[in-house]
Amino acid sequence: MDLRYTEEEEAFRAELRSWLADVIPSVPPEPPVEHWDARRVWDTAWQRMLFDAGYAGINWPAEYGGRGATPTEHLIFLEETEHARAPYVGMNFVGLLHAGPTLIVEATPEQKTAHLPGILRGDDVWCQGFSEPSAGSDLAALQCRAIRDGDDYVIDGQKIWTSFAHVADYCEMLVRTDPDVPKHRGITWLILPMGLPGMDVRPLRTMDGGIEFSEVFFDEVRVPVSNRVGDENDGWRVAMTTLSFERGTAFVSEMLQTMELVHDLSELAKHVTRRSRLAWDDDGLRRDLGKLSAELDALWALTRRNISEASRTGLVGAGGNVFKLAYTDLRHRLGELSMHLLERASLSLDDIDELTSGRHVQGRIHGLKMTIAAGTSQVQRNIIAERLLGLPKG
Amino acid sequence: MDFWLSDDEADLQAGMRSFLRGRFPIDVVRSGEEQPGVIDRSRWVELAETGVFTVAADMGMRAGVLVFEELGRALVPGPLAVSALAGAWVPGAATGTSIVGVLEVDDDPIVVDHPAQIDTLLVVTDAGLGTLDPAELDMRTVTRPLDTLTPVAVVERPLPEPVVVGGAEDAERFVRDAVVLTAALQLGVALGATDLANAYAKQREQFGRPIGSFQAVKHMLADMLVKAEVARSAVYAAACAVDAASADDPQRAASIAKIMAGEAALFCGRTGIQVHGGMGFTWEVDAQRYWKRAVALDNAFGIIDHHASLVAASL
């Protein structure tokens, strides 16, 4: 074990840091959350800048236009971009981290040529059509039907929790092509161009008032059979390839932001007075902040272990599940601490006066989502119990 | 000793629940989110006619908490506890014609709730209890409150001098009683969140069976019930202490109720969201409303940490 970076890794970091220092000042300010068209322009413009500088698809193989970076370099990339306050991957997420990597492994040469460059350049935004109202934790129970009709599939049904559906160009989609076999065996993976006749995208309002997610309805939507990735009824396996990409590094940027949140919260505590007393003068509160800070450092260490495992084996194992469970639990506790520290200032989603309180209240709400999204904590515990501890399936 | 509801007490609570089902069903409460003022003044007067703003003074705190538990469960918005205790000092509070809020002067920033609809603000000062006319305050309403049904405003200093209406003992009693009634609202929120999640866990199916049949979900719901029932015991015990129907110190009992009911409401609120999965995170499903109200109520008359300090000081 050696936590020091190699010379090559340090050189990569130095080059990246210098590039970021040059370009970040030219990045325009982030548009407001709900300005979706402006957000799309902003997110994809950043992707184009990465592309032009050779940083797009940092972990994609070089033969498909990526940088072919090692997992450690990928980690350094995420660390440096976060420290430089570079734009987050944003709505390029599905294309870069889900759909693209799946296409690289599973698609035909024609499909790769048609789609991979658009993702890397930031020309195309992808969304994900996996979950359905009756298929959440039980994803394989999905029912959205695709019936073969000549050279087309005809799709009827509904998807839900589709992020950025109203601004996306393509959707990586799972459909039911055979309802008469065990549920995992009748699923097919399709490339769906958005905006086809018969599609209806309806934004879904979430508890913070935002509309990041949509429901998507399909009424006899025709998609060419040539848009199928992998074999018919082999979509579950294709999709699992996709999901495994999410575990290693998906939360790295966010966790670095969380570390920053703890620092900001400590500063805030020096400016909030409750019952004529500074919040920071509360020993218990300072101890709680100290514990959270310690836990975050430990989770950062876990991240580096997971990355090292991936470097050696090519896979992120159940360590990704351990991270997700521990990190999202921490977000709940950090959120509760923020709210207690802010007291009545926590009753507003916006900043109050000069206090940076709004981000902490929104962070609390984000924490409520994190133990549900991308596999609930209950599902994570089952996976850990079954895969790491070898306990029988319930 | 008989720490169980008498027939009269059970009837009182059942009557309140039935009134709220009829006049404050959740869709009516929710509709306040689309209006500039979340409090419907004619329904506020109906609450007064039902005795909500007089029950604690006339019948005692035990009756008070039973009624307020139901108000919390129904997510009825507004400064209910303050209005119910202000009758002695603010004309119109008992009849519902005047809505009374509270302002905590030792805070910075000062954040008041329901700024647009409050007629009088009660202030606890060194001298005792005072009143302020909200119109005299420099208030800036927050655009996006956490709980849409608890709008808030930031109050700029300096504050005008309050009109003194009561002495130090009045102030102490007022705060203590407000703490107990708020704890009763929190208890109701915890129970309401638990009922909603329980119903969902029985109806929602994944992997071919109701999600409530999975131990992971079952255990969440069992924990919610345990938190709520422990809180109920603490809230009812505090009410007995305030009514001198117990040997406990009422101040300490009030703080304990606020801690336990506050924890229960926050826990059941967030766990209720978790039980609902993705739907729990939507605006449409009420799970989030219980959690948001739990936060708002934790911040009324001292959060859990504050009351924990008071209890520690009594050791």
Name of the CATH class of the largest domain in chain B: Mainly Alpha
Biggest β-sheet of chain A, characterized? 4 strands, mixed
* Helix fraction of chain B by DSSP (H/I, runs of at least 4): 40-55%
CATH superfamily of the largest domain in chain B: Butyryl-CoA Dehydrogenase, subunit A, domain 3
Give the number of domains of chain B: 3
Provide the CATH topology of the largest domain in chain B. Answer: Butyryl-CoA Dehydrogenase, subunit A, domain 3
Element-by-element helix/strand order of chain B: HHHHHHEEEEEEEHEEHHHH
The second-level CATH architecture of the largest domain in chain B is Up-down Bundle
Gross morphology of chain B:
globular
Explain the layout of strands and helices:
The complex is a heterodimer of chains A (394) and B (315).
Chain A lengths: L6 H17 L12 H18 L17 H13 L9 H14 L2 H13 L4 E4 L15 E5 L2 E12 L6 E7 L10 E7 L5 E6 L8 E12 L3 E2 L5 H10 L1 H4 L2 H18 L3 E2 L2 E2 L4 H31 L5 H24 L14 H14 L6 H12 L6
Parallel strand pairs in A: 1-4
Antiparallel strand pairs in A: 2-3, 3-7, 4-5, 5-8, 6-7, 9-10
Helix pairs in contact in A: 1-3, 3-8, 4-5, 4-6, 8-9, 8-10, 9-10, 10-11, 10-12
Chain B lengths: L6 H17 L2 H6 L9 H10 L4 H5 L1 H13 L6 H6 L14 E4 L6 E4 L6 E5 L4 E4 L6 E3 L10 E4 L7 E4 L1 H36 L1 E2 L2 E2 L4 H28 L7 H26 L11 H12 L5 H10 L2
Parallel strand pairs in B: 1-3
Antiparallel strand pairs in B: 2-6, 3-4, 4-7, 5-6, 8-9
Helix pairs in contact in B: 1-5, 5-7, 5-8, 7-8, 7-9, 7-10, 8-9, 9-10, 9-11
